[in-house]
Amino acid sequence: MSFRLSEKVFTKPRIAYKVLRLRRDGSLGPLFINRRQVIPLNTWLIAEDHPTEGFAHRPGWHAAPKPFAPHLTLKGRIWMKVEIADYRKLWRPQFQGGAWLLAKRMRVIGALKNAPRGGAK
């Protein structure tokens, strides 16, 4: 599958949206890569590089400009409002949400009110 990553790195922080795993204890974590990590609220996090077999190597925090990810199920997951900085745009097919944002820095602000439902079954 082809994709296109922007050359430009956007340094100004911006609001974006991210789906995170909501654990039984209420903590948040990544969906696929480095799944044991606990994601705190209101703390700037620096992206780490964790090459993982079976996944394309795209280092950085993956977020979206809108809360739209039709390829993901939301069971056990939650949309979060995040702030990102030092990011690039990655264009994906519309059925994978269209534009993704790959950021070097991210902080989770809180749960998205009126979060969208649906996505993959």
How is the topology of this model organized?
Blueprint: E1 4-5, E2 14-22, E3 28-29, E4 45-46, E5 61-63, E6 77-91, E7 99-111
Antiparallel strand pairs: 1-6, 2-3, 2-6, 4-7, 5-7, 6-7
Structure keywords:
121 residues, 0% helix
Task: Give me a quick take on this structure.
With 121 residues, the chain is an all-beta fold.
Report strand %.
35-45%
- Number of helical runs? 0
- What is the string of SSEs from the N terminus onward? EEEEEEE
> What's the multimeric state?
single chain
Output mean pLDDT: 88
By DSSP, the count of extended strands is 7
What kind of sheet is the major sheet? 7 strands, antiparallel
Give the tally of structural domains.
Answer: 1
Global shape: globular
Helix content: under 10%
| Terminal-residue CA separation | 22 Å
Query: Rg, please?
Result: 14 Å
| Helix/strand structural class | mainly beta
Uncertain residue segments? none
Describe the structure.
This protein has about 120 residues and is mainly β. It has one domain. It is about 0% helix and about 40% strand. The chain contains no helices and seven strands. Strands 1, 2, 3, 4, 5, 6 and 7 form a seven-stranded antiparallel beta sheet that branches. The mean pLDDT is about 90.
